[in-house]
Amino acid sequence: MSNKKSWFDVALGAAASLLLLVMMLLTFADVLGRYVFNTPLRGAFEITELALLSLIFAGLPLVSRADEHVTMDFIDKILGRSARALLRRFVHGLCGVIILGMAWLVWLKAGKIAAYGDTTDVLKIPVGPFVYFMTTMVAVTGLIHLFKMFGPISVEDEPDFDPDKTSTT
Question: 133: helix, coil or strand?
Fold first, then answer.
């Protein structure tokens, strides 16, 4: 993957940054209000929960696009470059199918939550749209893995495994 960021990366990265900023400011205001003025912000915990949910699921496709997941490379020492590329394609395909299956299950749950009209306790914010957002981000992540399965995969920039070298990543 090139170092050039797509509009998708920029948009999700900006949204995640904005959510993190809102969470920090909200927490600061809540703590200040709670301990200095003895008046906590009503519903701050709920907003923080929903913002954290959005932050995590907005970051999921970004991590998948950049291949920044935690990986185990214990099998790399016995595989050559072409076998590693084939393994990477297989893993992307398997991840894509599993993640899309999860997206389908979360979509079904989102429909039930929206039908029940579930809301948060204090501020009565509808929860359904947030679960639909989760579903969308999980589905996008699954599609990213499937595209990566069929896209160009290069292991040329990866050196062959050297058991005597300490990892720098």
Answer: helix
DSSP 54-105: HHHHHHHHHHHHTT-S----TTGGG--HHHHHHHHHHHHHHHHHHHHHHHHH
Phi, then psi, of 14 in degrees rounded to 5: -65, -40
How far, in whole angstroms, is CA 127 from its chain's centroid? 19
Residues 95, 40: Cα–Cα separation, whole Å: 43
d(CA 54, CA 12): 10
User: Could you say which DSSP state residue 34 is in?
Assistant: H
CA distance 60 to 42: 30
**Tens-place pLDDT, residues 46-66:** 999 999 999 899 889 988 888
Which tokens in the block code for residue 78? 């016995």
d(CA 46, CA 125): 9
